[in-house]
Design goal:
By secondary structure, this protein is α/β, with parallel strands linked by helices. The protein has a single domain, classed as Nucleotide-binding domain of ferredoxin-NADP reductase (FNR) module (Rossmann fold). It is 25% helix and 24% strand. A seven-stranded mixed beta sheet has the order 8-7-4-3-9-10-13, with helices on both faces. The two termini are 34 Å apart.
Amino acid sequence: MRRPLSIMRASPSEGWIELLYRVVGEGTALLSRKARGEQVNLIGPIGVPFRIDESRTLPLLIGGGVGVPPMVFLADAMRQSHKQLEPLVLMGSETPFPFRARPSQIMVSGIPGDVIAAMPLLEDWGIASRLASQQGYAGCHEGYVTDLARLWLEGLDGDALGKVSIFACGPEPMLAAVARLARDHDLPCQVSLEEYMACGVGGCAGCAVPIRTAEGVAMKRVCVDGPVFPAEAVFPG
């Protein structure tokens, strides 16, 4: 069976994509043993992407665990094609981050002064990022990434808050918390769901999830109808 993996970076002009994954089973173990020059068979990109509203110039990107790579991809897309945006990327993980964090040189108002750990790649791009964990990692917010997001949002004035939109990918409990956060602050929010996919082309319906629509609740396939949905359609509250 294929494995659904998120793209972290891509260069259409140069013809490459970059994936970030953790070895957790047989499929990813086999992939990790591929040598330079070997071929892999893949299908993609598939599904519905995030939609960027350029009038919301302060996008908040929240990634948890395997939801981190899509946030890097989205931040990269914003810096290349939507230069007026000033994204903040918050990442959470209860296992070691797949990069060596470094102290950020980009100040972020509303973030506690001792929370300075950042992703080097984003830092090099000039994009603000902060990390959260409950494992005592140096420079990280001690708690959930959604708690860190709430601190930042509550530090904004009304004008700035009106410029925020939220994008998130991660485990379901985190996405549910992000959806509550968006409701509490009346902010638009899109979530990318993590589901196992057998075919990836909408044929097997193995990744179907209940989504609230104007006509009522309907089963939608994450691989072709998603993976991105409005947060309120997935977590109506």
